[in-house]
Amino acid sequence: IRSATTSLTRGNFAKISSSDLSFFERTVGSSYVKTKDIDNYTCDWTKQMKGSSKCVLIPSSTEETSTILKYCAEKRIAVVVQAGNTGLVGGATPLFDEIILSTSRINNNFHLEESSGVLTLDAGIILADADYLLAEKGFMMPLDLGAKGSCQIGGCIAAGAGGIRLLRYGSLHSHLLGCTLVDGKGTIIKLGGSLRKDNTSLHTAHLTIGSEGQLGVITSVTMGVVPRPISILCAMLAVSSYSHCLRLLSLARSKLGEILSSFELIDGETMKCVERHLPIKNIFNEPHDFYLLIETHGSNGDHDGEKLNEFVEEALGAELAEDGVAAHSENERTHMWRLREESPIAAAKDGYIYKFDVSLPLEHFYRLTEETRKKLGTRARVYCYGHLGDGNSHLNVTTDGEDEELKKELSPFVYNWVVSHGGSISAEHGIGQLKRDYRSLGKSEEEISLIRSLKGVFDPHRILCPYKMIPSQE
Ligand code: S2G
Ligand code: ZN
User: Fold this and answer.
1) CATH (domain of 406)
2) What is this structure's pTM?
3) Of 105, 118, 197, 308, which is least surrounded by CB within 10 A?
4) Which residues form the FAD-binding PCMH-type domain (predicted)?
5) 447 Cβ neighbours under 8 A, 6+ residues apart
């Protein structure tokens, strides 16, 4: 278990007293002030980042959240904001003894305006539950990710989640219309609104996307949702080279056009790792160097099926793919997606894991994996899967045990390589505690100073999520 506090010292925040706990109990009820058996809250999803905390508070409303934060601001009590705790960079995990404020009980309100496709929902509602409620009305959440069964919509916004259908539906910046934020002073602020077009001032709600709890607690979200596609189809291709993968992406864009929804990559090493650790088999009988998973979302199954089959035929005919198949049933589609969505689970079973989530210009996307393999040789196993259509690589490295030497050299190597090749050190997972030492990479001093000032506006005592994405000192 690794704590990233090696180079950190605890800020001069208050230590929790029994009178603080009594105040919290009076605010949220004693059942929702947890002081023991809180490992689920103090440890992250990868189980590699673990902190400690005096208590977990689980308010049921915006108002209770405001009361808590007003009190914590006054007492200078440090707070970690936590939603579904599915994050991968330890953003919701305490580093010293910050209290944890969980949004899990802020999950009562859900209102869909069917004519406009605008949804207002409480931040603690789980993504899969929101999508299920929308399905019966013919709508769909515009994002989907592996953690859908436990991530909450407020956490998705705060993390700036991307997921597997961004290629078709765009990022959260395309869908967020407004939100309710309780800032670091406990002030309840309505940001933005519910109109798809409102250009009357700064788009303040969008500041919360990727804010990682630094500016406040999102307690309610208003966003556009999308018509549920009538036809969802999938195909998988086996490919022998990365350059062919890129040519297939261009082919998919031209042949599938507006119905292309996902274009995911699994490299050969990752597929072997999946087969080694999970009860799922490759859909092809032979191993290949790359696998592409393509999903279409459309309104006419025959039309879409024709386009997808033509695409697969052309991929094979032009010898861009060594093998390829379109899913002929929901089971086959689910199998294809399990291979991709469970790649992270297989990698996590493969040993001590060093996870990356980088954006790169497509010509460099896979070179990073090759360079990392060359650098590490037999010291580690290197896997690559990700959203090729978005230029987002999930490079994952594993070793049999935690390797301090490797850890010291790996992140600097990867992040410097990424930034020097025009990429971003975090495409969708954020900074949290895992990447805090690299949070300024590629940013100008002026922008860093502006970000710190904005943090000061929303959280003047800097009690929210200290030691992470935004430096605590002015
Ligand atoms: C993905 C989530 C899991 C991971 O699979 O697309 O964003 O381990 C990731 O990277
Ligand atoms: Zn991803």
Assistant:
1) 3.30.70.2740
2) 0.95
3) 197
4) 49-228
5) none
